[in-house]
Every structure is written in C-alpha cells, then in structure tokens.
Amino acid sequence: MASESMIRVTELLRWCGVTSSIPNLPIIKAAMERGTLVHQWSLLIEDSADSDKLGELDNCFNQITADIQGYAKAVANFHTKFRPTWISREVRIQDEELGVSGCPDRYGEIRGELVVLDFKTGQSYKWHRMQVALYAILLQRQQSPTNDRWCVYLRPDGSFSLQRHNSKLDLVRAWNLINTWRRHVLEQKNLSP
C-alpha cells in the first residue's frame, strides 16, 4: 500500500469506531499534555535507573513539576519491580503492506517473556487492549514476536496497576480492524479515475 494510505493505530481505532473523536476540551488537552510529559520523563528515569545512578534519578524527580512527579515515580516503581530489558522504546513501526503504523511505548523482555507495553496516565478503557493487540501484530510482522501485551496505569500517588492482555480473540479482532482498513483503501483506489 502506498504511504498516503498509511494510518496510525490510534487513528485506526477511531476510524473503525472503537474509540470516538477526542473532544477539544481543556481537561482533555491537559490530560494529553500530562501524558506527553510523563512519557518524556519516563525515558530519562529509566535511563537513570538502568545505569544505577540513583543521584541522577533523584535529580530527575527534583526537576519534574509536582503534578507529574507521582506518575514519574510510578514509572520508577514499575522499573524497580519488574527490571525490564527494553529492546525498543517509543519507536514507530510502519507496515507498508498493511498500511498501518504504530508506536508502542515499550517492547522488550520482562521476566523471560517478550512484552509489548503501553503506559497510561488515565483510567482503563476497553480499547486499550485493541491498541496493544495492534502493536503486537506490527511487531510480529517485523520479526519481533510478543508473548504478552501489557497496559500499565500510572497513578499520581506513585503507584501503578497492570493489566495483561493475552487473549487470542483480541488479536483476531485487531486483524479484523486492519482488514477493514485495507478493504477501504482498495475500494477508494478502485473508485479513483
């Protein structure tokens, strides 16, 4: 498929009606900005934790604004508990044949399993399982298989909760979304003069 027919995972979920359009509300904008900041800080926190430079980790927390600190500490607490070995962090995957791209937060090994993981700073939604299933499909097609799909919900108090999504039905549903998109693109090409 041509690059003009490439769709991102989050857009595919909206296009297929799994999620709705994001309302342009100040509270939603603030939540999205918070998520972006937490993701940026999470990379620095993991780098500091991986190198066992605890002084640098404390310095990271001192630089983070109070409204983000708890979420950042939740990342550090997750890292301390699970000691992941990341193969990739926030790397965009583009599958030209499928016409789908995605950017999973993390892919790597946790306790002997290959895991695709997405950090979340809000509440749990059913569509999150479809999001990580789509990421798993993209990774598999890039010769990077996954054993498990995780969503980690970071909390403002520094804690986190984990949801593991390992249902094969989620993968079937994700493939259905991809195939619906591919049929749409082909139909549009056939309608073009």
Summarize the SSE layout with pairings.
Elements: E1 7-8, H1 9-15, H2 26-50, H3 54-63, H4 66-82, E2 85-89, E3 93-95, E4 100-102, E5 106-110, E6 113-120, H5 127-141, E7 148-154, E8 160-165, H6 168-191
Parallel strand pairs: 1-4, 6-7
Antiparallel strand pairs: 2-5, 3-4, 5-6, 7-8
Descriptive key words:
single chain; 193 residues; alpha/beta; 5-stranded mixed β-sheet; 3-stranded mixed β-sheet; 51% helix; 20% strand; globular
Would you kindly provide a written description of the structure presented here, covering whatever features stand out?
The protein is 51% helix and 20% strand. It is built from six helices and eight strands; from the N terminus they run βααααβββββαββα. The radius of gyration is 18 Å and the shape is globular. With 193 residues, it is α/β, with parallel strands linked by helices. The two termini are 18 Å apart. Helix 2 packs antiparallel against helix 3 and helix 5 crosses helix 6. A hairpin with a 5-residue loop joins strand 7 and strand 8. The mean pLDDT is 88. The strands form two sheets. It has a five-stranded mixed beta sheet with strand order 2-5-6-7-8, sandwiched between helices. The chain has a three-stranded mixed beta sheet with strand order 1-4-3.
